[in-house]
Each structure stands twice: as structure tokens, then as C-alpha cells.
Specification:
The protein has three domains: about 10-110, no CATH class; about 130-285, Rossmann fold (3-Layer(aba) Sandwich), CATH 3.40.50; about 295-410, Orthogonal Bundle (N-(1-d-carboxylethyl)-l-norvaline Dehydrogenase, domain 2), CATH 1.10.1040. About 45% of the residues lie in helices and about 15% in strands. It has helices at about 55, 70-90, 100-110, 140-150, 160-165, 180, 195-205, 225-235, 250-255, 270-275, 290-315, 320-330, 335-345, 355-375, 380-395, and strands at about 10-15, 25-30, 35-40, 45-50, 130-135, 155, 175, 185-190, 215, 240, 245, 255-260, 275-285.
Length: about 425
């Protein structure tokens, strides 16, 4: 299971006696200042790299990073995790039945605390063997790193593989197709541009899907697209959870997103949501309720950003120092952190994307579509859409949506 060609500078396999339903390899990664565990599952063929922190949950005798664990201590720690995986394998292979318990007893005899290792978050959730993440863009890449930090086994796929490759160095298994990503995974996550991209990826994943997998659809796709995706889940026997997130690049990287969830409260998702978010807000039992909530929150963010950009453009057009506008609103009842962040982006001309103009324009379309179905007028969202469209046409589509500021200087069509 260890890649050939020196992909890992040094490794040491576990003794043959522990070559059962799971085996570990210590992988020293000096270049990264850490070492990782390459965990292979002969009973399923799954293979993933896990951060060294997993050893603490497995009862290992060291913390942090540094030299490889001495073989006796590593062997003992192995017994704890093998016991948990072995029980799973023994249920399918009577020949192995009884061996996992013996391995676990061996660990206890060596004075190492046993426990269920992989994917535990310390919050009482069941272990998650493997998470499949489809989409590693601005949001997905940050989420992936937090899943890895939480000790979850992770396979990732992205339409442009180069965007996913950096995650391999941090422990993710990068695959070439959605079907490879989801095969054998307990949890499937989608974080893609829109409903069409999600539908396309899941159709490609179909050969690797199995009934009973839980699918958390975390992209912002709108009401109509979500209904179609829920239908796909029913056809394939998947547990479907509508779980878009509130937040942009920085919260995704910090693991402080707000997960808006509706549908079944599947315990397999607890460690996943805990890894990527600061909190999970249950919007209802019906898949779709969370998406409807997301449209209201993202609509607020988009229209507020448009208002900030328009005010600063107006100040410039009226030959008013935009800095004076900032001083006038800062510290007063109109002030808020979001205003400060977007105002700073415009004044410093730093439009590094947290949420792109293109993405925001897409979401205004979803808001308008849902509003039409509900019989509600969303004048501000439609006005923001027009500004975003002009900014995109002027070459700002991949910049942060604060770049809608430039729409103030582009003539309306």
C-alpha cells in the first residue's frame, strides 16, 4: 500500500502478526515537519493517510510531531485501533473472529489505553471510516484540511485535479473520479459551484455508491436543484441531508462555518460537521429547509456588500474622500464587522476572493427563482444581481464580490 518511487522518504511496517483487518505504516515526512500514518484496510482495499494526532486517540504514547514512535510502543498503540476495525471485519469474516479482541488485550497488557480511534472527535460520535469530498475549491479545500485535522480519513476529487493535489501532502487521498472517491466511504460530501455541477459529479459517482451511505449536500444549489438531487438520493438509497454552510473562505479555513442542516440527523455526520463548523443549526426535518434558510442569509450578505460598494463608489463620484465615509459609519449604529471587512477590501483594492462575483451572481439568481415561487418581491437582490453582472462583464468575475464596487463606474446595459 506504500506508494512506490520514494513518495514517502521513510517508513516502517507493523509486524506481520498484526497484518489483519488493518495495518499501519509510520511515514516520516521531515519536509512537512510531521509524520503521518498510512492506514490500509485489506478487507476493503481502502487506504488513507492520517495525521499523527490520531495516535493520541488510539492510545499512543506520544503527542505532537517528531521522531517516529519506537516499534514496541507503536505496536501496542496499533492494538487499540485494530480492535475497533477488527470487530467490523470479523462480522464479515468468521476466520478473523476472535483475533481483534486478542490484539486489543495485547495492547492493554503493554499498558496502553485502548479505544476506538479513527474519526473520533471527543464528542461521543461514532467513528467515521472514510469521508469522500467532491469539490476542493475555495470552500472545499478549507473544509478538507479541517476534516484531516480532526483525524478523519479523507478522499477528495476535484474536476481540476491540480486544485486537489496540495491536500495529498496533508493526508488526503486524491482520486481521479467521483466513483473512486465515494467507493466504500461512509459519508459523501459535495461542495461544488451549483446544482448542475453537483448533479454531474454524483452521476459520475453512481458506480461507487451503495445504499445506506449518508450524503451531505453542502453546496448552495437553490430550491429546484435540491429537489432533483434529493430524488437522485432516493433512487440510490442514500441518506440525504441538506447541509449548506454559512461563511466564506476564512471561516472555511478556520473550521468556523455555520452548518445549516435539514433532513435526517445521522450520527455519522456529527464528527464531520464538528470538524468544519463552529455550530450546526437544525433548520427542520425536511430536506430543503436548510437551503431555503441559506438563501435568506446569503441574500443578506450579497445585498449588504452591494450597498457598501455603491456607497463608496458614490463617495468617489461626488469627490468625497471614501475614508471620511468610513470614519462616519465606524463605531456608530450602522457599523458591523461585515461592513468593515468589505469596506477594507474596496479601500485597499484587495479583492482576493472569499466569495466571488460569479458565485454571488449565481446565488442572486437562485434567490430570485425561489422568491418567484413564493410570490415575494426581492428588489434588492435583483438590483445586486445587475451590479454583479456588470462587474463580471468588466473582468471581475473571479474576484471577491466586493468588486461589485466597480459596477458603479460601468454603464447599465
Amino acid at each position: 500500500m506504500v506508494p512506490a518511487g520514494g513518495a514517502f522518504p521513510a517508513y516502517r511496517e507493523m509486524p506481520a502478526a498484526l497484518d489483519g483487518p488493518a495495518r499501519r505504516v509510520v511515514v516520516d515526512r521531515p519536509a512537512l515537519g510531521r509524520d503521518r500514518l498510512l492506514v490500509s484496510r485489506p478487507d476493503t482495499g481502502a487506504c488513507s493517510a492520517r495525521p499523527a494526532a490520531v495516535r493520541e486517540e488510539a492510545g499512543a504514547v506520544r503527542t505532537g510531531f517528531g521522531p517516529a514512535v519506537p516499534a514496541p510502543a507503536l505496536e501496542a498503540a496499533m492494538g487499540a485501533e485494530t480492535e475497533a476495525w477488527g470487530r467490523h471485519a470479523a462480522a464479515r469474516d468468521p476466520v478473523r473472529r476472535g483475533r481483534p479482541r486478542a490484539w486489543g488485550d495485547q495492547a492493554v497488557a503493554r499498558g496502553v489505553q485502548t479505544g476506538r480511534a479513527t474519526g473520533r472527535t471527543g464528542k461521543g460520535s461514532d467513528a467515521v471510516e472514510t469521508v469522500a469530498l467532491l469539490g476542493t475549491g475555495i470552500m472545499g479545500s478549507g473544509m478538507a484540511r479541517n476534516l484531516l485535522r480532526a483525524g478523519l480519513g479523507l478522499r477528495v476529487w476535484n474536476r481540476t485535479r491540480e486544485k486537489a493535489e496540495p491536500l495529498a501532502a496533508e493526508g488526503a487521498v486524491v482520486v481521479d473520479s467521483p466513483a473512486e472517491a465515494v467507493a466504500g466511504a461512509g459519508v459523501v460530501l459535495t461542495m461544488l459551484t451549483d446544482g448542475a455541477a453537483v448533479a454531474q459529479a454524483m452521476a459520475a459517482a453512481a458506480p461507487g455508491l451503495r445504499a445506506g451511505q449518508v450524503w451531505a449536500q453542502m453546496s448552495t444549489v437553490g430550491v429546484a436543484a435540491l429537489e432533483e438531487l434529493a430524488g437522485f438520493a432516493r433512487e440510490h438509497g442514500l441518506v440525504f441531508v441538506d447541509a449548506p454552510v454559512q461563511g466564506t473562505r476564512q471561516p472555511a479555513e478556520a473550521g468556523s462555518l455555520v452548518v445549516l442542516a435539514s433532513g435526517p440527523a445521522d450520527p455519522r455526520l456529527e464528527p464531520v460537521f464538528a470538524a468544519v463548523g463552529a455550530k450546526t443549526l437544525r433548520a427542520g426535518e425536511e430536506a430543503g429547509a436548510a437551503t431555503r434558510l441559506k438563501l435568506t442569509t446569503v441574500g443578506y450578505a450579497i445585498t449588504l456588500t452591494a450597498a457598501v460598494g455603491e456607497a463608496l463608489a458614490l463617495a468617489e463620484g461626488l469627490e468625497v474622500d471614501p475614508g471620511l465615509f468610513a470614519q462616519a459609519v465606524t463605531g456608530g449604529p450602522m457599523d458591523n464587522p461585515y461592513l468593515q471587512a468589505k469596506m477594507k477590501a474596496v479601500l485597499e483594492r484587495d479583492f482576493s476572493p472569499s466569495f466571488t462575483v460569479h458565485g454571488a451572481e449565481k446565488d442572486t439568481g437562485l434567490i430570485a427563482e425561489a422568491a418567484d415561487r413564493a410570490g415575494v418581491a426581492v428588489d434588492l437582490a435583483r438590483a445586486a444581481a445587475a451590479r454583479l453582472h456588470r462587474a463580471a462583464a468588466a473582468g471581475h468575475a473571479e474576484q471577491d464580490m466586493a468588486a461589485a464596487y466597480f459596477a458603479g463606474f460601468e454603464k447599465a446595459p
